[in-house]
Structure formats: structure tokens, C-alpha cells
């Protein structure tokens, strides 16, 4: 044995040829600080090993190395000096691998991402099996590669390909990577180690010139000035268009490659180190790392629920073939769970099947499905007008009109039809689950399952636990949501649940400014361009549906009369009364149509300004953001304090996946902590006179005084 550590070991695989194998205690290999120390120690031993002819780098796991241990990042990045020292030291470990006095060959299987991909780059040759996926996804964390990726990748696959890989963070199959020269050979999984060892032998015996293969990575980038300038200019334009100003990482990646292009290895690494460290101190990095950690926490919780499920959902039913019901039926069938789609009107069923066909046709056009898949999915949806078709299903998703009386009758009738062990859920967006449960004889098998539109695109499903919902029901519904490819978050019952409950104070803050004469288009522009929402509040209201939003304000007013009172004179109510329902009928805050080429249009309508008495009162961008966001953050805090949602991480992910909260801000709680709790309280106090939605809770005020954190 040449070296034995906790996460990796080195030994001769046969005389003269050593195998450095990553073998962490957990399910995957990753670079935590301890593993990097062991990696350095192992490479030191290899450099001093006599009779060494070659080294292959392998993994004992089904996957190679998934990257750095991100759980260490936020704590590490809080100390600038420590971060600077760490990244400089860590990146030089990969130099040790590159500088071994013998040829090195990586044997790649499964994922080799981030630091795993950078390990491959430090080797002379890369042999992959057909399962391999490689990439540098650091921009998704608000970072750039920190272990030499921006220096080595352009020298291996050329600056144009490298810039695409790094600025997009895309993953690449073994075949794709081989086409651009990243992977040297692709073999069957059972031949991977044998093939890597064969390459090492060919290099050691002089059949392959491994020194010539290594040399370009040690030298300035081999590209002429004109070529390089054009490549960098193109990349800058694409990043400016796609990432914009809110995401600094892809911009920094281009700068690091540009600054290191004419440098030898040490100079290029220094440029990368400096750019990496700067990014660790940005709000976007902290937010995006926070999202990753929150996402892992949410997925971990969902898996625990799923493992506890005693009932497997093998056959589903959806009541209502409208936009939501049809979307849910499609998603269930697409993910392999056959579904009955029931409605009381044949034309609704026809429309539901037509919509499913339309979604599938688009998937076929984009290469995400083939005709066989399309036929299989459509044949897995059984449209019916008959109640008896529900017999034998494992779960029924009620998705009829958002009316408690109608839903109550449908739920009672459903319970009388299905088997005693069938689970019944409601896709209500605001109506109390406990109120709906009163229509059932056995409320233990009932809960909410709130999908978001469009169902096939939106990742979130809120699972709403009622007072009498059993643990078994929740577990089974979470498992079903996971089968559908969704991210389920379990919340407790209240009007609006989590996402819609915190949305309406945001819209109320927006409506308050309209009453003061502020232009809704100006507010949308600030909330989209400066805060980062995909849609401003006016546009969002039109997409949701003005009539739907108006109905929800009544539900929220009943639940929270002092904080969210119904205002018949606000903009939403006025537009609804004027039959301006938004995109669904072509007129809401904006006027909708199509241009000569059939592309959708969104334009201002002067009559709306007259209807709402908008006189163009101006407010600063900071005030517009404060007036909209303080109510949303306050309500999210109340949901956590009241136990509606279990953690700040779950609240952030629900808002990210359900409403499109700007990822570079990380969610309401991460945004709050970025601002600083004490600063947020001081800001909110400036607007407290506007009403209860602007008044912070005692819990927040106390946490701010004590210097606490919602992520502690």
C-alpha cells in the first residue's frame, strides 16, 4: 500500500502501475477539506515512489467525483483571509497531480463535476465509460471553477468550447465530451479500468507522447490574438444577454480566462484564484449556495416521507379536465402512472386530451420524446364521464372549480365511489383543507395537493396537511409527487397555505402604490429589471387571472381580516368588475394579442390608466421594492413562526419553485439575511404606518436584536 486515507487510497494495480482510488465513506466522492489534504499527501507519496511507470485515477463508487463539499462553503467564505489561503492551497493540489513524473490516466464513470472534472483536467489522458457525465457547473452556485478549470479547460478543448461549458455550467455526456477532445476514449463500463491501464502502459512505453499532451496546459493559451478576441467578444455578448447584471459569475469566468490566456500555468491560476475569491464575497454567491443547500434539505425531507409510505400510488384519477386537471393527468401519465381523467362534459375531456397532445407534440419537436412515448402517454390517460371509472384507483386528485361548495359535493361523492383505502386530495389554491375535510367521513385520508400552472413545467407541489390528515396519507402523497418529478413541500393548513398566502401581501403592497397614482408598468419594470422577478406584479396578476386573483382576495380577507382586508376599490377588484381578466380574455392591466408573425404581444392600454386613476406619481426604485417586498417577507416570517412551513429553507425553495423568486437573491429568508435583520426591521418601521402587512413580528425584532439567524 502506497497510501491509505479515509477517503482515498493508492496501491499498485500491477508492477509499476499505481491506482489512486477515491473511496469516501459516504455514497459519493466529494472534495471536502480533509479529502483535499489526503489527496495532496497521496500525490506526494506517489511522486516519491520508486519504479513507478504510470498512474490511473479511479473511483470505487458508481460515480467519479461530484465536486467540492458545498456544505462547507458558507462558513468558509465568511472569512476572506481563510478563503484566499484555502483556494490557493487547494488549487495547487491539482498541480501535484499534473506534475507527477509519469503519465496519468483518469478512468471516468458517472458524474465528474466541478472539482471532479478538474481532477480529470489535471490528468494527461481521460478514458470514460458510457455512463460518464462531465462538466463545470460552478456558475450555478455564483462561482467559477476554483481548482484550475478556467486555466486548463481552454487549453484542452479550445477557448470557444471552454467558455460555453463554463459560462453555462452545462453537463456533457461522454460522447459529447469526446467530440470536443475532452475525453480521449469511451468504452463499455466493464472495460473501463482495463482501458485506462492500457493507455497508461502505452504512454509509459512511448507509444503515446504524454509529455506533449501535458505541455499545453503549462503554457500560455495557443490561440492567435484575433481568434481569441472574437471568441471572448462573442462570449461576453451571450453572457450579457442571458445572465444580465444580476449574475456576476459567468462574467468573472470570462475575465479569468482572458486574464490568464497569455500567462503560463502559475499566472493563469493566480487570475482564477483572484476571481474566485471575489465571487465568494458576493450576495449572489451566498444566495445561490444557499439555494443548493436548501434544495438538498428539501429533497432529503421528501425522501424521508417517501420511505415511510406504506401505500404505493400505481393508478391515479383526476377530477376536472380543465387547464389544471388536464395538466395533472398529463404529468401523471408522462411519468408512468396511468390516470383516469373524469369530467361532467365531453367537450372538457376532448379539450384535456387535446392539451396533452399539444404538450407531447412540442416535446417530440424538441427531441425530448418520440412518437412511441407520445402514444404511450396518451394511451395511459383514460377520459371518462362515468363515476365507476374511479373504482380501483389509489389516489384521486380533485381539480374542479375553486368553489368550496362545489368542491365539497364532489369530494363527498368521490368518497362514496372509491375504495376505502383510496387517498383523496384537493388541488385547491386557497380554500382551507380542514373546511373541505368536513365533507368526508374519513378525513384521515384527505389532504391538499396544490400544483402550479403550467403543471408540466412548474416544479413545486404544496402538500397541505389538514388537522386530521394521517401521516400515512402525507407520506403516500409525497411519494406520488416525487414520482411525478416534482419537489413536494409539506405545509400545514391555513388560507392560501404558504405560497399564495405570502403572495397576496406582496400584491397588496403593489395595489397600495396604484392607489397613490403610481404607474403599474413602472412598478413592473423595477421589480423585473432591478429586483429580478420574471414578471412584475401587474403582469403576474394578468397571467394568474384577474378574476382568480380577485376571488383569492376574498378568501384571504376571510382568513386574515385585519391584515388582508377586502378592498372593493383596489385595482384588482376594479379590473375584475370591468371584465378585464388578464391574458385569458386578452385584457387586464395590459392588452394582449399577436403581431403579424403570430408572436404574442403585451401593450399598455390607456383606458386602464383612466379606470384606475393612474396619474403617473413617481417613486424611487428603492421605495417600490420596499413597498412590495416588506409585506412578502413579513408574511413568510409569520408562516414560519406559526408552523405553517417547517423551515426557512423550505420557505425559500417554495417561493423559488412556486413563484420564481429571483435565484440570485435566494428566497425571502436569504434575501432578508442578506439585507441584515436589523436593517430590514429599520426599513419596515419606516412604512409601518401603511398597515399591518408592513409591521414586523416580535419574533423578528427579537432575533434582529440578538444577532440571530433563520438558518442557524
Question: What's a quick, concise take on this entry?
Answer:
With 712 residues, this protein is an alpha/beta fold. The protein is built from 30 helices and 20 strands.
What is the number of beta strands? 20
Q: Give me the CATH fold name of the largest domain.
A: 2-enoyl-CoA Hydratase, Chain A, domain 1
Major sheet attributes: 8 strands, mixed
Dominant shape: globular
Q: State the CATH class of the largest domain.
A: Alpha Beta
Name of the CATH superfamily of the largest domain = 2-enoyl-CoA Hydratase, Chain A, domain 1
The name of the CATH architecture of the largest domain is Alpha-Beta Complex
Structural class: alpha/beta
| Beta-strand content | 5-15%
Enzyme class: lyase
Organism: Idiomarina xiamenensis 10-D-4
Catalytic activity: a (3S)-3-hydroxyacyl-CoA + NAD(+) = a 3-oxoacyl-CoA + NADH + H(+)
Keywords: Fatty acid metabolism, Isomerase, Lipid degradation, Lipid metabolism, Lyase, Multifunctional enzyme, NAD, Oxidoreductase
